[in-house]
Amino acid sequence: MNLNDLSILSLYSAMGVYMLAFIAFSIDLARRSSAVDAAPAAAQFAATAGNPTSTESGGTRTLTRISAGIANDAAMPYGRSASLRVGVSLTGLAWALHLVATVLRGIAAERVPWANMYEFAMIGTLLIMTVFLTALTRADLRFLGTFVTGLVLILLGIAALRYYVEIAPLPPALQSVWLVIHVFVASLGTGYFALGFALSAVQLIQFRRERLVAEHRPTRLRFLATLPSSATLENLAYRSNIIGFVLWTFTLIAGSVWAEQAWGRYWGWDTKEVWTFIIWVIYAGYIHARATRGWRGSRSAWLSIIGFSAVLFNFGIVNVFFTGLHSYSGL
Amino acid sequence: MSRPLDHHDSKPPADGVIQPALDFRGWLRWFWRQLTSMRTALLLLLLLAIAAVPGSLVPQRSSDPNGVTQYFTDNPELAPALDSIQAFDVYSSAWFSSIYLLLFISLIGCVIPRTRHHLQALRAKPPKTPARLSRLAGFTTRNAPAGTDAAAAVESAQHLLKSKGYRVALFDAGPEPSVSAERGYLRETGNLVFHLALVGILITVGFGSGYGFSGQRVLVEGQSFVNTLLAYDSFNPGRFFNDESLDPYKLTLDSFDVEYETQNLSAYGQPVDYIAGVTVTERERSAQSDEVKVNAPLRAGGTDIFLLGNGYAPTITVKDPDGTIVFTDSIPFLPQDSNLTSLGVVKVPDGLAEQLGMIGFLYPTQAEAKSGAYFSSYPDLAYPLLTLNVFSGDLGLDKGVPTSVYALTTDNMTQLTGGTTGSKSLELKPGETQQLPNGLGTVTFEDADPGAKSGDFSGSVLRFASFDINRDPAQGWVLLFSVFVLLGLLTSLFVPRRRVWVRAARRVDGSIRLEYAGLARGDDPALEAAVADLADRHSAAFTLPITSTEKPKSHGGQSNESQ
Ligand code: HEM
């Protein structure tokens, strides 16, 4: 068994453990729902409507809203269930296996492990997980576990089944330090965009729930009551997305420098360049939306979702089906 | 603040907006306001993103001219319609340009007043302390020990804040002295730098690159090129390009080496390195040997030389029936696949009884499929074979219409070998000669390395390299502005801008209570922690015992009210 086989084995094991983590996180969500059910309905309403700061500090809530801390201001406080802890531990274990798989692939190939679609997917999902696990040390985002492990599982599944290629040496066009920098930073940016995407998606459903509660209408997806408010989710998404945006800006610049070295022009509207630009502009729009009256909240969340969809499209569709100078999918 | 009126921080519009009868100037002003509003900027940004999409779906003349030609052949109905809406030139089209020009007008109209305001704000003092700090973020209090002098306490807070980079204003006239402090002006500076640098990029890209050029030239091993306009195979000058600015240096392609993967069987034959060995002779300098590689251009004579493509250039000689050479040249053959099956065209206009054209296939390592068709099984020269389909008749060169050297127009020609003619294509190995049909003469596939051992073909066919030679005097500026974009972005997104206040409030019993609070201006996740930290440091700095325990949780989240 050579190093590459070990890498594959490690990756499949990681996927198996991610699957277990996904199940644990799903059980946790179910538990949250039943915990909400068990709480007296009156308390729920009180907790939501009587959000302590929004009454006491009245008007200042709008002033301080954008500086709201990372604390979970859920309508229904919810502790740590065993399944949540198991989910996080399993995710950590799967991440370690995933890391080993990636590093082994790099050692086996004697170069950085990001030079074709299979490897992009492997490093990209590894960084999505890394960003998620790092974020957990700063804010309680464990409720996103189902979402993130699910996303990574799907992407890894596609990569392993559809994108797998044997190790090949770097073609001359990719022999550059810029491969190391540009692709890595792009993948890291994708990690932050993914987290922003997950948060924005939850923000949208949370906002729906808050509206229903305010109108005294029944809500579905009861576990949402244990999640932070949509305003907090929006702030968290924003923070993740702006880090992603800075990294993406760097990706764009580094890509231009590389294009200049390889092709003699820094910008040529090649399909891949076009899509990198489109993504950049969408997120610039998102940042503007957050600063525009009438566009905060759900509208900006939609832009964050569209932005990440464009990232996925750029990776999964443009790389494979569009022609251009960047034909390095290895497929 | 002078951000656009619909910035989320600015005051909401008064109810029942009075619409005065607008005269022309009023109307203009209204229009300008709309154009420079956040909402317009946002819509234009989203429009720009959408408008950029079609250019990735349809081939573009700028990046893929052959793709456009192909598109016209494949979609004869649709293509002209698309062309009429500039779908093949999206990024220079009227509609795409008008979107980004409007966006940048909006940007300039937005940034100029903001810059003016920011310069004023930089000189202004922080605003007066609000009457009720308890309504603000991170509000916290400490009890000062008995006998504390309120003015001194506030003054020490002023020093502390100043040392932390706050701009401060002391309000010590009343009975409850306070200090008001603000920091993070760099945030707005960064934002303005970011937006202005975007304008800088647009201008340098738009105008600066007009002074440059880009040209292509194919060189076969051994050939030279002198950097003058006529020596280029194709040449695209910028709008303001002056051909006297070309420095006539000489570039010789001495060798072209390709290294193939031979260890890794799943990538067997994949090229791992291309090296063009060149000699550059600049004016009044001695010749310099150097290399051009992919990703490693050569900078010479004010231009950058890039290695873009390569392939084989077999040397073909045609003699008339008397044995006089009527044609001999090394012809670049264009690679058709990854094993370098290569296609080329030979045109012999003079010297034979009829004009002669030949379409040749070069198989670097010839192999035969079951069907009898030839293909190349390896890109290097293991067992090279050249096949030629010969045509005679009119090459169509005399009509004054420029023709491609890579294509043969066979409309007025008769095919003599290959295809459906019944006679096989001519087949030649390096060094071999064959008779042309109809006694026209002979054709020879020259061996470029005749001294090699028999069976060693590795040097038998010359290679060519295609170079892109460019100059873009603006690109250094574009890079500089890009760096400013990045720096501006970092400061504007991550430098917290906040106001902080400290007040010494007097209680009824005469003791002094120190109040601390802050206000975020923009996204500021660390505000509460910063206020708490200030309270701790300040109270510790000038008193010993901290008698109050009204301390917020370190990441309290919401403002932590007490009393
Ligand atoms: C080429 C077009 C533009 C791009 C790519 C762009 C991009 C951005 C980005 C990335 C930010 C966030 C980073 C920062 O604060 O510096 C931002 C902020 C901002 N932009 Fe633009 N912008 C553009 C045009 C405009 C225009 C036309 C306006 C005026 C209407 C404008 C007004 C603002 C304002 C006020 C902010 C601060 C937002 C805040 O307070 O958080 N921008 N812009």
Architecture overview:
- The complex is a heterodimer of chains A (331) and B (563).
- Chain A is built from 11 helices and no strands.
- Chain A is mainly alpha-helical.
- The longest helix of chain A is centred in the middle third of the chain and has 38 residues.
- Chain A has one domain.
- By secondary structure, chain B is of the alpha+beta class.
- In chain B, the strands form 6 sheets. In chain B, strands 14, 15, 16, 19, 20 and 21 form a 6-stranded antiparallel sheet that branches. Chain B has a 5-stranded antiparallel sheet with strand order 1-26-25-3-2, with helices on one face. A 5-stranded antiparallel sheet of chain B has the order 6-4-24-11-10, with no helix packed on it.
- The two termini of chain B are 34 Å apart.
- At the A-B interface, helix 3, helix 4, helix 9 and helix 10 of A face helix 2, strand 8, strand 11 and helix 9 of B.
- The complex binds protoporphyrin IX containing FE.
- Protoporphyrin IX containing FE sits at the interface of chains B and A.
